[in-house]
């Protein structure tokens, strides 16, 4: 989508600190981290939120969760623990209307996380 910030990052029109790129999803660091490790897992196709997915998106949605596992392993937070968050709609705090999973972790022995 032309004016979508995440579509622009995926197309390389604005910079993103990528961890991984794959056909149907990418992972890059959040520009304003809310945890010691804060990564966004983002489908390359423009879907606004979970409220907009169809039955035919089931495989993609499963692959996004598998992507989160892979990135957690890559960043070595799979054993210590990590949190996945998806905001859906303005009322939930979604700012960027392009579906993304927040992957948060790396708190170590002094967790400061809040739900
Ligand atoms: P949400 O509130 O779920 O829509 O989350 C959007 C996230 O995108 C926020 O955590 C922002 O810090 C992050 N964000 C916004 N712009 C950028 C950017 N250019 N690069 C990386 N992350 C971004």
UniProtKB/TrEMBL annotation:
<dbReference type="InterPro" id="IPR019808">
    <property type="entry name" value="Histidine_triad_CS"/>
</dbReference>
<dbReference type="Pfam" id="PF01230">
    <property type="entry name" value="HIT"/>
</dbReference>
<protein>
    <recommendedName>
        <fullName>HIT domain-containing protein</fullName>
    </recommendedName>
</protein>
<dbReference type="InterPro" id="IPR011146">
    <property type="entry name" value="HIT-like"/>
</dbReference>
<feature type="short sequence motif" description="Histidine triad motif">
    <location>
        <begin position="98"/>
        <end position="102"/>
    </location>
</feature>
<dbReference type="InterPro" id="IPR036265">
    <property type="entry name" value="HIT-like_sf"/>
</dbReference>
<feature type="active site" description="Tele-AMP-histidine intermediate">
    <location>
        <position position="100"/>
    </location>
</feature>
<feature type="domain" description="HIT">
    <location>
        <begin position="5"/>
        <end position="113"/>
    </location>
</feature>
<dbReference type="GO" id="GO:0003824">
    <property type="term" value="F:catalytic activity"/>
</dbReference>
<dbReference type="InterPro" id="IPR001310">
    <property type="entry name" value="Histidine_triad_HIT"/>
</dbReference>
